[in-house]
Amino acid sequence: MIWVSWRQQRTETLIAGAIIAVLAAVLVPTGITMADAFDRDGLAACIGQNASEGCGRAIQAFLVRYEWLDNLTSWFTLVPGLIGVLLAASFVLELENGTYRLAWTQSITRRRWIVTRLGACIAAALVAGIAMTLLVTWWRTPIVDLRGRMESGVFDFEGTVTAGYVLFALGLALAVGAVWRRTVPALIVAFIGYVAARVFVDTWLRQRFQTPLSETWLQAPGSAPHADLQHAWVLEQYPSDRLGRRAEFMLGQCARPGEGAVRAIDKACFLEHAPGYMHAVYQPASRFWLFQGIETALFGGIAILLIAFAAWWTHRRAG
Predict the structure, then answer these.
(1) pLDDT digits (tens, 9 = 90+) for 30-41
(2) Strand partners, 261
(3) Burial label, 19 (beta-carbon count in 10 A; 0-12, 13-18, 19+)
């Protein structure tokens, strides 16, 4: 049964492998070039809070040089969803065509068939997710050393979350396909659902896993933000007074009563509260593994529920 499952899953697995091979063909040469440039420019010595002005220029030049590649890899966030729904195709196709009935008449129980077929899908999804994580993490190493790995687009391929994304897309496609039994529409719906879930988590939910921190610092030569802002995910940053209040707030606070839309500004009040500070709201780099664990558990837990539902539905409703 394991050999049969592999043969049935072989085409989709080879396509997934080909996708990762294409990514490797793009990332390996550019990754070697980028790592060589990082070492040649001596940027490792520039990493730290008290980097010199010359280091700052060198770091900025390096980041600008490879910005287009960094932006390109941000689109790779769609690849885990594509691989996940692709690996579900063979299972859903068997349900659509009814070929599973042949296996069930060959002394193979429903439970054994379902467990073996879904086990092959899950194993392939985990291997693909881990391979993508290792590849992109290696490629991004110089950029991560300089900018950190908390921001969206970088966070998505570090740690354990990529495997969770692939499993989530797989589980969603299996659940929709088990109920609908129409392979192409089910995979399209599952991929759209994957994208919607990722956008929701990336743009709204992740930054609320824990209450963000805030920091206010003086804008003056020799002044610098707290060390926690190094490699942090900065959610918001703006000029402020020493209490972290926006310049717009201070203008309103120092406005004199007047007629119409134009009101005079109390100069003494404004000078006292002038925006000579910067205020930032951020998630520190120290929360990286905590956020990785939360997001992996979120997508992986939902994936387990979806796969279990697909197995239950197939066992009870397929005939």
Answers:
(1) 999 999 999 998
(2) none
(3) middle
Nearest to 83 by CA among 149, 21, 6, 37: 21
Torsions phi, psi of 282, nearest 5?
-155, 160
Residue 311: pLDDT band (50, 70, 90) is very high
Domain boundaries, the chain: 2-210+286-317, 213-282
**94 vs 199: CA distance, rounded Å:** 31
Question: How far apart are the C-alpha atoms of 139 and 199, rounded to whole Å?
Answer: 24
Contact 46, 55 (CB under 8 A): yes
Token output for 16: 């997934």
- For residues 177 and 187, the answer to whether their CB atoms sit within 8 Å is yes
The one-letter amino acid code at 109 reads T
Residue ranges with strand state E in 158-311:
213-218, 233-240, 277-283
Report d(CA 193, CA 33) in Å as an integer.
37
The CA distances from residue 81 to 146, 191, 301, in Å, are 29, 6, 16
38 with 44: CB under 8 angstroms? yes
Geometric angle at alpha carbon 63, from 57 and 66, rounded to 5°:
140
**H-type alpha helices, 148-227:** 161-180, 183-200
